[in-house]
Write a structure and sequence with these properties.
Strand content: 25-35%
Structural class: alpha+beta
Radius of gyration: 19 Å
Number of helices: 3
Shape: elongated
Oligomer: single chain
Largest sheet: 3 strands, antiparallel
Distance between the termini: 44 Å
Amino acid sequence: MDHAFLHQIEGFSLTTAEILYRFPDHPQLLQTYIWQDYDLAPSFPKLTDFLGFWAANLEGALYRVRVAHRRLIAPAEFTFIEGELRLH
């Protein structure tokens, strides 16, 4: 089975993060990095782990992180119940 499909069944959706960070040698300049993975909103454990790794191991200081995820932009989810409604 497809790994991405299994994650979707577990509630994971594709998450995209736009990460702006400062150049180590020129902190007045900003660079963009795009990160994507299947993650679980609203806690975003994979993104949180990645940002922790970044802060601990990379020299470019984080400036801003913007996150896009289906649960952040999708309309409310519907729950189907048993029954039938007929409109004439």
